[in-house]
Amino acid sequence: MKGNFGERRVAAKLRRLRKRDYIVLNNILIPSGQGSSQIDHIVICSSGVFVIETKHYKGWIHGHQKSENWSQTIFKHHTRFKNPIRQNWTHIFALRKIHPNFQKLKYYPIVVFSGRARLKNVTSELPVLYLWQLVRYIRTENHQNRLSPSQMLWIAETIKSTKFKKKKGSKKP
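^ thats the sequence. predicted structure below, dont judge the formating
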């Protein structure tokens, strides 16, 4: 439940991006290997494809980009969770397999914390941001025109048409 709330907060923030310059897809489920990959947000713009993993946590967050797990500390209570950077790379690998042309796209993986988390000891070459930083980051990275508006639309439509379809009678994708 808390993840859904965080994803809704991020989706609301992404609505601030101009529709003519950005195509935003939320909560996308695509096939991946034997299962599926649930991508919180995809933003398609002229410079490429932003793939956003949302975490709605509070407390102190500790992690390294190559670690298996990260941790959340609230007073003396420690909780481990999957490394969101690794999680996001699995989403990008799944996107690349949708269509041969998707191999050539420029991807921008982002992890965004939408709750009251404090990033402490987070080591990453890739952006790990607070919600308030997200839109500005996307706008500043969108400066190279690699994709035309028609290509952006084609990418969005291809992703939407590839969305995972549940088989009748199956409980999980």
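Residues 97 and 103 are 7 Å apart (CA to CA).
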